[in-house]
């Protein structure tokens, strides 16, 4: 079965609650739906979420690179030639979410053609993950109220608190207020999106030393090479590399250089093929991993949970699988549901999801 066409369709779905963090903010899911068509009529899907302030990709740029550069190199390959796909995409440096979406849509098509789930193809460790929710910038009172809503409504008990690029005292007050309100009934960690210097990061982490944080993520830029190494050496919690590790080679560089001690695996960034490489590398090095979220919609979240639930290592920690809760709608016929703090892998072949044609019609941004 051969790849006959690769489609890239822009869509836009407003957020009911915009997410704000140190490197940007998101008010609308201006994503790209990627569909891989085979010559036998099977269609695999995935979504690419552009994050211009992180990787420089835009919705228009993703569409252009898929249509003009990637699709012509992939048409005619079979669904099982995924390493050929990977090698061809790797000729282009960058464009991580465009590459990842193409890769995942091919895996979805493969699963559908074999009548097997992608989760089973990848490893099939379990069918669900515990969920971690991201709390964007707001006042301490509003962030505690939001966490309370998420606990009550979805049973989620792990929170990643966005910090950085605003007064350090405000960020630490948020984390202190959350711990004060919930006591030891929730897990907490912080993500700076490169918003602090190394010295600010250490000051903040010392100030929060009594708050029992699980991790610190990307508090300062990886390009502050010695500063970040110094910071990581002074911390007594794992330091997660996120946007500094868009490829397995970056993981090696950051970890061997002493600038990271844990890894965020984002299927939106490394697809299934690259995420598997990152997973195996992390396992071999004995690193903690967290399934991260590139502020994915439900298609991307189905990808993340299919991958995260496929391996033992990725299920040890709650996965970031809930950003879609802040969106006003989505494209799936059967929406994802988080219950009792868990998200199940959608049942069925491939990713187990279907695109609702009416919803796609309503939200597509190319007409
Ligand atoms: C995260 O973990 O950083 C925000 C920016 C980005 O690139 O990803 C999100 C979430
Ligand atoms: Mg992050």
UniProtKB/TrEMBL annotation:
Keywords: Isomerase, Magnesium, Menaquinone biosynthesis, Metal-binding. GO terms for molecular function: magnesium ion binding; racemase and epimerase activity. Gene3D superfamilies: Enolase-like C-terminal domain, Enolase-like, N-terminal domain. SUPFAM superfamilies: Enolase C-terminal domain-like, Enolase N-terminal domain-like. Residues 140-238 form the Mandelate racemase/muconate lactonizing enzyme C-terminal domain. GO terms for biological process: menaquinone biosynthetic process; peptide metabolic process. Its cofactor is Mg(2+). Belongs to the mandelate racemase/muconate lactonizing enzyme family. This is Enolase superfamily enzyme related to L-alanine-DL-glutamate epimerase.
